[in-house]
């Protein structure tokens, strides 16, 4: 039975969204089990190659797990087989419990879709035959003599074949050595309890909706189909069905015109208020689940954010990190972790219009920056471009609890 719409203030919607993302009262526990719990809650953790600071997958998990250790991911992937690598909206770590929902995409590639490049079926067969005979292999195990210098983004034929076979589901990533993928046959990687039944479009749509409920608390239809345009019709139909069944409730957010959705568990405003906290700060990865949908961030948080490493003239910096203070994004800073000298640089910091750093903010910022620099293997912090009074205040705070300069 369809239930009555509810109305939430923008502040309540923000709090619900952040709580659902594990950024308030995370409660994941400790150690490797906590890492798995965080991935299961988020639904995926995006993998990215950029290493200006700790790579996105590690950064995203560290933001939610105080004792996060990078070795946890490879152990969950290689030994425990409780996560796997595949494509969500981008390359990601996903819970193995969701494996069957990757099968429709894999089938589309197996049926002829190419992954970025045209297919070389002869090379695909050669690569597959070698892995069948020799076991797990990396791209570097396949020799390739380039006739000309080429471009950095051009993959050798064997690498293209490995990725095509990976997207088809014939190969999986068995582990990572450094940041390099080690591929093996899917049947050699999958755990015995993996569910391999092909889901229907209806099941996939309802799965996406329910994962979004858990990960975001409150969401629009566009949030679910982000970079999944082929799912719009199925998701729209599933949303209507779940509304009629009473599993979902339509939520109107004050000041926003389009409809959002939530669950009966989030219906009471008192529940939303009960998770409210006023003393936290996060430096989020540009690929963090909370900010990856830029339009959603703009709507809920009035924060206009892009990553500028792909634009010709950065306004704020090459790789700016959003600064979340309580329930607002108040700044962004351009970092650089120099692991050779062990110096963590803030090359510049920009505060949002109307925000004035308080003493409480400065203390939280300094403490979090100390922790983040340590996580990045740095023992010294240098703030370059910043307002001199703010810089002085933060560096004075450092001197009270850390041997930083």
What does this structure look like?
With 405 residues, the protein is an alpha+beta fold. Among the domains are: 6-12 and 199-274, Arc Repressor Mutant, subunit A (Orthogonal Bundle), CATH 1.10.10; 100-190, Arc Repressor Mutant, subunit A; 306-401, Aminopeptidase. Helix content is 39%, strand content 18%. It contains 15 helices and 13 strands. It has helices spanning 10-20, 31-42, 56-62, 71-80, 103-110, 121-134, 157-168, 186-189, 201-216, 221-224, 232-245, 269-274, 294-301, 359-375, 388-401, and strands at 6-8, 45-46, 83-87, 91-95, 171-177, 180-185, 248-253, 260-263, 281-283, 321-325, 328-338, 343-351, 380-385. A five-stranded mixed beta sheet has the order 9-10-11-12-13, covered by helices on one side. Strand 5 and strand 6 form a beta hairpin. The longest helix is centred in the C-terminal third of the chain and has 17 residues, at 359-375. It starts with 5 loop residues before the first strand and ends with a helix.
In short:
The chain is an alpha+beta fold and 405 residues long. Helices cover 39% and strands 18% of the residues. Among the domains are: 83 residues, Arc Repressor Mutant, subunit A, CATH 1.10.10.10; 91 residues, Orthogonal Bundle (Arc Repressor Mutant, subunit A); 96 residues, Aminopeptidase.
Overview features:
405 residues; alpha+beta; Arc Repressor Mutant, subunit A; Aminopeptidase; 5-stranded mixed beta sheet; 3-stranded mixed beta sheet; 15 helices
């Amino acid at each position: 039975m369809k239930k009555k719409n509810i109305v939430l203030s923008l502040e309540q919607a923000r709090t619900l969204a952040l709580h659902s993302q594990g950024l308030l009262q995370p409660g994941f526990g400790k150690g490797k089990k906590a890492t798995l719990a965080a991935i299961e809650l988020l639904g995926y953790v995006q993998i990215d190659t950029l290493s200006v600071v700790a790579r996105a997958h590690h950064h995203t998990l560290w933001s939610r797990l105080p004792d996060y250790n990078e070795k946890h991911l490879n152990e969950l992937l290689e030994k425990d087989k409780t996560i796997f690598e595949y494509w969500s909206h981008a390359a990601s770590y996903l819970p193995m419990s969701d494996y069957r929902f990757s099968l429709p995409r894999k089938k589309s590639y197996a049926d002829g879709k190419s992954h970025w490049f045209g297919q070389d079926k002869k090379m695909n067969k050669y690569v597959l035959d070698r892995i069948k005979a020799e076991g797990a292999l990396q791209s570097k195990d396949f020799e390739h003599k380039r006739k000309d210098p080429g471009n950095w983004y051009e993959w050798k034929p064997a690498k293209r074949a490995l990725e095509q076979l990976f997207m088809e589901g014939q190969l999986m990533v068995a582990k990572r050595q450094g940041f390099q993928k080690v591929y093996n046959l899917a049947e050699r990687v999958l755990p015995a309890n993996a569910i391999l039944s092909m889901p229907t479009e209806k099941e996939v749509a309802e799965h996406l909706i329910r994962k979004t409920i858990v990960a975001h608390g409150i969401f629009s239809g566009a949030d679910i189909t982000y970079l999944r345009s082929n799912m719009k019709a199925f998701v729209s139909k599933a949303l209507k069905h779940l509304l009629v069944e009473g599993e979902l409730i339509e939520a109107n957010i004050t000041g926003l015109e389009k409809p959002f959705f939530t669950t009966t568990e989030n219906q009471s405003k008192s529940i939303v208020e009960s998770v409210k906290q006023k003393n936290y700060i996060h430096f989020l990865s540009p690929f963090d689940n909370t900010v990856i949908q830029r339009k959603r961030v703009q709507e809920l948080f009035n924060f206009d954010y892009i990553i500028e490493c792909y634009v010709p003239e950065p306004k704020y910096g090459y790789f700016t990190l959003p600064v979340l203070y309580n329930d607002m994004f108040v700044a962004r800073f351009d970092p650089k972790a120099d692991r050779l000298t062990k110096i963590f640089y803030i090359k510049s910091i920009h505060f949002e219009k109307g925000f004035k750093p308080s003493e409480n903010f400065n203390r939280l910022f300094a403490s979090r920056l100390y922790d983040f620099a340590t996580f990045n293997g740095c023992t010294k912090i240098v703030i370059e471009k910043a307002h001199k009074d703010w810089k002085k205040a933060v560096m004075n705070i450092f001197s009270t609890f850390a041997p930083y300069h």
